[in-house]
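hiii so um. not sure if this is the right channel but i have a protein structure encoded as tokens and i wanna go backwards to a sequence. like what aa goes where. can anyone help
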């Protein structure tokens, strides 16, 4: 998936790569990598010609396990900004 937003002086775009895999009918592993690049300018920034740019990266990894009628989940998330 690739997302794009452009409006109001703000532009945001970037990819998202989800994935999932099941094992033994009772365990699944899920993961996602997401990145967006933000560039914008307020009216003050526009008049002084100092644009704003930021890149955000996020990943997640999880395991779901079914035991009886209960699902147990473990999720790890990390978000970075540059």
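sure thing!! here u go:
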């Amino acid at each position: 998936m690739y997302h794009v937003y452009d409006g109001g002086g703000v532009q945001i775009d970037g990819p998202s790569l989800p994935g999932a895999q099941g094992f033994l009918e009772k365990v699944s592993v899920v993961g996602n990598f997401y990145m967006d690049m933000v560039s914008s300018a307020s009216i003050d920034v526009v008049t002084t010609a100092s644009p704003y740019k930021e890149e955000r990266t996020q990943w997640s990894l999880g395991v779901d396990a079914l035991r009886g009628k209960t699902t147990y989940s473990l999720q790890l998330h990390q978000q970075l900004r540059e």
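oh and The chain has a mean pLDDT of 81.
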